[in-house]
Amino acid sequence: MPTVGYYPGCSLEGTARDYADSIQGVCRKLGIELVELEDWSCCGATAAHSLDHELAIALPARNLILAQQQGLEDLTAPCALCFNRLKTAEKALKKKASEDPSTTPEGIQVRVWDLVEYFSRPEILDKIERGIVRPLQGLRAVCYYGCMVNRPPKVTDARAWENPTDMDRLVQTLGATVLDWPYKTDCCGASHAVARPDLVTALVGKLFRRALDQGANCMVVSCQMCHANLDLYQKRIAQEHQLPLPVPIFYFTDLIGLALGERSALNWMKRHMVDPEPLLASAGL
Amino acid sequence: MEDRAEVVFLEPDYDVTGKIRALSGISPELCYQCRKCTSGCPLTFAMDYYPDQIVRYLLLGLEEKVLSSATVWVCSACETCTTRCPNEIDIAGLMDYLKQQAHARGLVRPKENLSYAFHKAFLDDIGRRGRVFETGLLQRYMLSSGAWKAKLSDGTLWEEIRLGLALFRRGRLPLRPRGIRDTHELRRLFEKAPVSSENTTQSSAS
Lengths: 285, 206
Hints:
The structure holds two protein chains of two kinds.
Chain A: E1 3-6, H1 17-30, E2 33-36, H2 45-51, H3 53-69, E3 74-77, H4 80-99, E4 111-114, H5 115-119, H6 122-131, E5 140-144, H7 153-156, H8 166-173, E6 177-178, H9 192-195, H10 197-213, E7 218-221, H11 224-231, H12 234-241, E8 249-251, H13 252-259, H14 265-270, H15 277-282
Parallel strand pairs in A: 1-2, 1-3, 3-4, 5-6, 5-7, 7-8
Helix pairs in contact in A: 1-13, 2-3, 3-4, 10-12
Chain B: H1 16-24, H2 36-40, H3 51-59, H4 63-67, H5 71-74, H6 80-84, H7 91-104, H8 114-129, H9 134-145, H10 147-153, H11 156-169, H12 183-192, H13 197-205
């Protein structure tokens, strides 16, 4: 059974409990053991890097050092922003170590993984493919990657930051029709949702229009901020932008669970704001 | 001759870019104004100055103008500009630097800047337990920023409350916060930081 470090991040204990459930459910099904980082703390998120440069590095760095102490070689981070901040700290620690070898003598060896990237490893993709009992025919999906797992590539080590394809390949493997579209990595407004919802509805409205024009009947994400911005405000956005919503928003792990025949998958998705049941029923899933 | 009265003489501070480079490692003087940052920016529609104009003003030494702009708070840190800049200027990092400076020097405008209020409430929440407790954070932000008043008058407060209840029913708004065990380390991190959460209340009052 492969084991891998797991840094859930604050939202997965709260508003993104649905994502946490789907990740744990899918990993159980695939025989991947998630080892939660002991006593992990917040990555600092947008607040720290906006207000305090030192904390913006020190907060995620604490978690990398913990991972190192706990002997974790790989650390997965489902939240795109957590992933980005952990990678930023990794780069900062490396720079510091190269300038002053006495600070972190052994260096940070932990590899931080974005969850889609981790699930796209050939052995796991293979395992998923062999486990499919219910191919997701009838779903016409656009995959939405958002900003933080890709940009800036100097931090994320992404190889295809303008046109990522990992999630597309994964969802295609599950039997869904994956549509190409140009807004894969355009911003959803992220944490602006709280203080400037006007910005978020403008950005997300644009994403929906294009996704629907492309013929999508659902959207797939891997980040809980993207999910919240796409899923929570559809009524308002439909009115403001005259769009034929709702459209279900899935986590990629929801779809893996569904295709693998995981019974609890429907329960994870019931906790989204937009009920995917009508779409799934019409697709015979 | 009348036009002459309207000529505005700039009082540039030529040390601005040098200071930025020393403090953040970012070199805005490498900009040759191709405007690629602005062309790819998803939020220009809500900005008072475009990203390339921010860089230009800094080159002209007009730092205060930039520090009190709306643009720095509208930036969502999507990193498109940083990724695409042909001269590898970390423009999103520059926006962070400007936010940090505006925060430290009490130059955040307007006074009722909700994005700023949210960042402060968020950072304070991390300082409390080491993890963010969204349920409490959202309430405290609404009360401390006065956002609830604006939402009450434009009618969106009820929408927010309905959304909160819907999330609660779905088990997505827990009532009890979780914190980290190593609170000593947490205190050390927050005390060590030059602009800690304690200072944030001071600068917002100034």
